[in-house]
Amino acid sequence: MKPELRLHTPSLREMEYRQGLLRQPETMSYNAGQPYDAPGYDAATGCIDFPIGDWRYWRDVWLWREPSRYSAYLQSVETGQFLGEACYYYDMEADMTGVGIIVEHRHRGRGVGTEGLRLLTAHAFESPDIDALFVDLPQGRENAIRMFLTAGYRETLNEHGMVRLELHRAKREEPHEED
């Protein structure tokens, strides 16, 4: 049974959840050893420090910048519990919108990531400015790759140890004029 989720835009007080999420070594282990240039990044665990002093700035950058950036918590409709986080952002180098998702380790393997991606995709494609979404993942991240494929993404590139997965908006029919 697929989980019933919603995207929840966090308040400043709810940033505490994100702080805890990014501190969980079991959740962030996928990120360990990656070339990630961020203050407070621990390459050994993959964890990222998110001190309270950064919350307001992060919120201002990520929560009110659509369509160039968007972030939301994955929230259980049944319990109201936060299960992870999903985001999208315009990537100038790729000239496309990148996506990211973090599901707490204790909620993995239950369809939370796939359903979260479906919700994020639907939200992104509400914007007429977004026609395609992508993610680049290391080849060894089989579970993450499978999650994106299950959510409808397709592999478009596989080289140098990286896999690119993309999802394109269905073609919009142009209205035709009556003669």
What structural category characterises the helix and strand content? Answer: alpha+beta
Which range best describes the helical content: under 10%, 10-25%, 25-40%, 40-55%, 55-70% or over 70%?
A: 25-40%
The CATH class is Alpha Beta
CATH architecture tag: 3-Layer(aba) Sandwich
The CATH topology, please? Aminopeptidase
Q: What is the number of beta strands?
A: 7
Q: DSSP helix count?
A: 5
The succession of helices and strands, N to C, reads: EHHHEEEHEHEE
Total number of domains: 1
Distance between the termini: 50 Å
Largest sheet, strands/sense/barrel: 7 strands, mixed
What's the oligomerization state?
A: single chain
Biggest sheet strand line-up: 1-2-3-4-5-7-6
Ranges where pLDDT stays below 50 over 5 or more residues in a row are none
How would you describe this structure to a colleague?
With 179 residues, this protein is an alpha+beta fold. The protein has one domain: Gcn5-related N-acetyltransferase (GNAT) (Aminopeptidase, 3-Layer(aba) Sandwich). The chain contains five helices and seven strands, in the order E-H-H-H-E-E-E-H-E-H-E-E. It has helices at residues 15-22, 25-28, 52-62, 112-124, 142-150; strands at 5-8, 69-76, 82-91, 96-103, 132-138, 154-159, 162-168. It has a seven-stranded mixed beta sheet with strand order 1-2-3-4-5-7-6, with helices on both faces. The chain is globular, with a radius of gyration of 17 Å.
Characteristics of this structure?
single chain, 179 residues, alpha+beta, Aminopeptidase, seven-stranded mixed beta sheet, 25% helix, 28% strand
